[in-house]
Amino acid sequence: MDYNSIKKEIKLDRRINELDKFVIDFCSLLDKYVLVSGYVSILFGRSRATEDVDLLIPKMNFEEFNKLWKKIHDFGFECVNTEIQKEAFEIISEGHNIRFSRKGKPIPNMEFKLVQNDIHKYSFENRIKVIMKNNSLYISPLEMQIVYKLMLGKKGNKKDLEDAKHLYELFKEKLNNNELLKLVKELNAEKEFKLIR
Fold first, then answer.
1. For the chain, what are the domain ranges?
2. Between β-strands 52-57 and 34-36, what pairing exists: parallel, antiparallel or unpaired?
3. Percentage of the chain exceeding pLDDT 70
């Protein structure tokens, strides 16, 4: 694995598994997106199962959503929540998530979210390109990914703290420590950060 923090690019040399293939196939349909949360840890070798992959995309109007909906369905995916585009658009417009899976296979699924808040915007604007074989994926910046997982760990979710620890241990020599500490402070994750150091 080679991480160039200046270019915001990671070259990852490993076998592409079925979950990766699902993510690559879905993300190939999108112009702009960022992968966040649990899958990022799994992508970098954390051994755990997941049923869903979290994805952020920019806000869009109904016409843009309708085109994307058709493209997604034409490629063999379906919305788990509803078969009606307008209903799906209303759900995400109200700040909720919708899920897409391969037709007839509800797991794994892509949890599809519109960018809603400052954490989402930061993740989107500072995303990192991951290159695997001939494929590229975009993930949230590692510093934010770690701190976001620490925040989720406040609720007692051990899995999230372990995700944060995995990424921290793997990338600690390459992280922007000033940025990491700034985010830890801004998002009140000092206590949780001590647990993974």
1. 2-58+115-141
2. antiparallel
3. 100
